[in-house]
Amino acid sequence: MLRVGICQLNLTVGDLDGNVERMVAALAEVSERGGDVAVFPELAVSGYPPEDLLAKPRFALDCQAALEKIAAATGRCAAVVGLPVAGDGGALFNAAAVCANGATAGVERKAQLPNYGVFDEQRHFSAGTPEALFEIAGVAVGISICEDIWIDGGAVEQLVGGGAELIVNVNASPYNLGKLDERLGILRRRIERTGCPVVYVNLVGGQDELVFDGRSLVLDAGGSVTAQAKAFAEEILVVDVETGCTRGSAGLGGPRMRRIPVSTASAVAPEPLPAAQPVASLAPLDEVYAALVLATRDYVTKNGFSDVCVGLSGGVDSSLVATIAAEALGPERVHGVLMPSRYSSDHSVADAEALCHNLGIEGRLIGIEPAHDAFEQMLAPEFAGLAPGLAEENVQSRIRAVVLMALANKFGWLVLTTGNKSEVAVGYSTLYGDSAGAFAPISDIWKMQVYELAQRRNEVAGRPLVPAGVLAKAPSAELRPDQRDSDSLPPYEFLDPVARAFVEGDKTVGELIAAGADPELVRTVGRLVDVAEYKRRQGPPGVRVTPKAFGKDRRIPITNRYRGEARD
Amino acid sequence: MLRVGICQLNLTVGDLDGNVERMVAALAEVSERGGDVAVFPELAVSGYPPEDLLAKPRFALDCQAALEKIAAATGRCAAVVGLPVAGDGGALFNAAAVCANGATAGVERKAQLPNYGVFDEQRHFSAGTPEALFEIAGVAVGISICEDIWIDGGAVEQLVGGGAELIVNVNASPYNLGKLDERLGILRRRIERTGCPVVYVNLVGGQDELVFDGRSLVLDAGGSVTAQAKAFAEEILVVDVETGCTRGSAGLGGPRMRRIPVSTASAVAPEPLPAAQPVASLAPLDEVYAALVLATRDYVTKNGFSDVCVGLSGGVDSSLVATIAAEALGPERVHGVLMPSRYSSDHSVADAEALCHNLGIEGRLIGIEPAHDAFEQMLAPEFAGLAPGLAEENVQSRIRAVVLMALANKFGWLVLTTGNKSEVAVGYSTLYGDSAGAFAPISDIWKMQVYELAQRRNEVAGRPLVPAGVLAKAPSAELRPDQRDSDSLPPYEFLDPVARAFVEGDKTVGELIAAGADPELVRTVGRLVDVAEYKRRQGPPGVRVTPKAFGKDRRIPITNRYRGEARD
């Protein structure tokens, strides 16, 4: 038995001093509660992912200096601390140090370095190999980092083969819908092959486009979850973990591993802790919503801001973004801005005002016609004799961005942008207009899901937050008389699945047509997705909640003539 | 002796049909000139870098289908063709196929996959190992890809150890200042260790932020350059290459390699070609300028545009950008836009008009005061009682962006943005204002170098292109009365080297202060560089001409509290 303190903390990239302070406090709490070891997430000292901060040779050295402060704070209760560690010849490792009694006893280095999707770990790190087992309070603990537990025959199996009685796996595993089940599948497969219990510690919090959901886990030697930490919230969860492999380690046939003595067992056996309470699972819509709220809060606050503004059009996207912001920051920190033009319908302003009322947020009304008139006058000599079109429509959207940015600059707010994944995918937005903003809470939410999320929030609140009129009306940018999204785009119920197949499924036009999709629909959407790359490149970060969001997940050249429709 | 056709082509990412067409035509030309083999650059079929187009399983298959068209066009003259090739279990390889007599004889796969700087090859590719030597016209040729020739004991040395008489090395090596010397050093080191001549074939052309300079090379067994293709231009260079290693291959001690018969020697020995003419090297400023011109031309034209517009402030940055654009596209395709405000000095308009005259480009004058007044009126109730400041300044810059984008939208132009590397580094620009645009020709040029480049262009032209007044006056954004850059920033002669140390040298504040730099200057610049990350993330691509540009080269988190000044 080992008493483990799972320190599921919300740490900040680059905040070495702040992260150390949090970890030292958590260590003290675990120690006070009789813990044998406090376990922190992957790269806890630096925050995750540090990206090219790792290119500065000084950065890893500063992290190592920060580790010494944590090590100095340890006593009998050990600490497992993720951090980057410099090796010979400029090599860097994604490592976990084991500290106790005021010193660092040893370090394990991550072997399996993800370099796909949002991950660039081979850009920075060299691969390590399992070094030793750590004798913590009499238990031989194998320390592993994230994907080291994914691989048949990998580091974790070497550790168990070498005699480990418990696997501690430290993670910074970003959320996407369905991720918990994926993790459980991976951990259970490993336990099936090793018979060794696992303590899986995850990071929590938002970091640019990533959000970490926490939900740290303890699985026993039979693969059952015996404890789970909170979703999307910090928790220091202290649990008594049964150690020892059910099938022994001989089956894996590895050599016995070197053992590093770390700490002794408590002289007095502590009162056993009650079993952890089971955690209710979240419905998919609630889980996604919680991710958006946490990511938005953390982006704003970790960047030193308190307030945000949102342009409210009376549409469902801006209504949902304001709802998320109000929940993330408190309604008093959210400033709705209504910017009607000559083409705005009456219900636009009325619906936006109702939303402000429902959420308890401020709503400022700033009509854009003075600037709209001025630009018309300025551009009239240039545009003489030409029919009005997209250029004139975009001017209106850009005027609104100028107003929002002016308010943000003046009052120190951040602008939240309201584009959803469907719009971002097909480029149905104005660059430097409605696409402008510091952060995009719903850029990974397809339009049809925007409606579902808004409806679900009303349901949870037990009253309309997003007004019924917003949910009922046809989507429109209102940049010309009687405009509807459906004038320019296929209906979202057709657009969403096709765009999703391109973006998340990496399908080509040719493949979708061959699979029986409507050729015209597929060609239209495919072309729009390809051509919008230049807009996306200039978009703000948004919250990633699917296995493939825009941003670091999907790196498509702007200059690109591939249309995916081979003619032979 | 082998007659080699170096096909230094300007290919386009994703344009499989177009690239194949170019390659088939080049192959015919080499064949007609008696060539034994036509060599194309790395990933020639797909263009380089294809980035996440490679995530679409169909993409590599389409490239392989395209290869068949090239193979079908070969006769006795062989072709070495770079392309992505799918392997078992979803593996992908960065490969070079050797084709002759209408078929593909074999494939080599790149072993050394760069995953640093702008490169993400381990994201997409698995590493190969040298397979065989190709007997082309009686010569045992070892085929290698890019960094395979960088490594002591790597693929190239295995090929020579295995009996190669000539190394063909295909590349997509992006330009930066000093790159040619770096390449020569690498090639000479390899020849020193192998005694084997090298044909080094490089790509040419712009691709988003990258520009490939060509300058393909032939080095003999003594390490001397016997031929060099043009810089920043296409060329099909047919040369007679002496084959055979001076020191034999026994010294490298490798096993003999399998040989794949490809083609036979010409029945009639061809008339020897005259030795290649030596190529004059370019002065650094001219080399960089040529890179900017080619990259700008290719970004515009490969994306299907013909014309650009540039906001002309009468300052040196916009003057240089217009000069580059006029050279890249022809003056009739460049539209200068002068947008004075109440704060613009008289010389701003006069200098911009003189520039238009000197370059022979159109200059349109659109005063921004109507919109400026309108926004003041719209924002007055919001800003009542507050002192004017940054918010009001930014409004003016954003009005100019609205005007430029309206013209671009209306007439189908691209907007070139004019920020230099100093401005981009410290964030001295308005987001959605002067930072707006499709492409940033000088975003990798430090301010002091902007002056040098402008002066050098005048010198080369033998007359002032950039007016003398532009070069003489103090830099100013002209967003408030008598504003100067030096009100907000350290003088550029101090700012540039410090910002460069942060950005290109990956130094920290602590390191620079320890090295004796002025602490206040270092802290100011360091803080500005860190805080501007959110602006850079929304910036357009710009031309990379240094070993570390902004963009794919430098991936710094926005949410980041690291200040690089450890307190112990």
Q: Name the chain pair whose interface involves the most residues.
A: A-B, 91 and 91 residues
- Please give the alpha-carbon distance between the first and last residues of chain A: 65 Å
Q: Report the structural category of chain A.
A: alpha/beta
Strand order of the largest sheet of chain A: 13-12-9-8-7-6-15
Q: How much of the residues of chain A is beta strand, in percent?
A: 15-25%
Oligomer: homodimer
Largest sheet entry of chain A: 7 strands, mixed
Give the tags.
homodimer; alpha/beta; 6-stranded mixed β-sheet; 18 helices; elongated
Structure description:
- Two copies of one chain form a homodimer.
- Chain A has helices at residues 16-32, 57-73, 121-124, 155-161, 179-194, 284-302, 316-329, 346-359, 369-383, 390-411, 421-426, 447-461, 468-472, 485-488, 492-503, 509-514, 519-531, 533-537, and strands at residues 2-8, 37-39, 78-86, 92-100, 103-109, 133-136, 139-145, 166-170, 198-201, 204-207, 210-213, 217-219, 225-228, 235-241, 259-263, 308-311, 334-338, 362-365, 414-416.
- By secondary structure, chain A is an alpha/beta fold.
- Chain A has a seven-stranded mixed beta sheet, covered by helices on one side.
- The longest helix of chain A has 22 residues, at 390-411.
- The termini of chain A are far apart.
- The model of chain A has no long low-confidence stretch (mean pLDDT 96).
- The interface between A and B is large, with 91 and 91 residues.
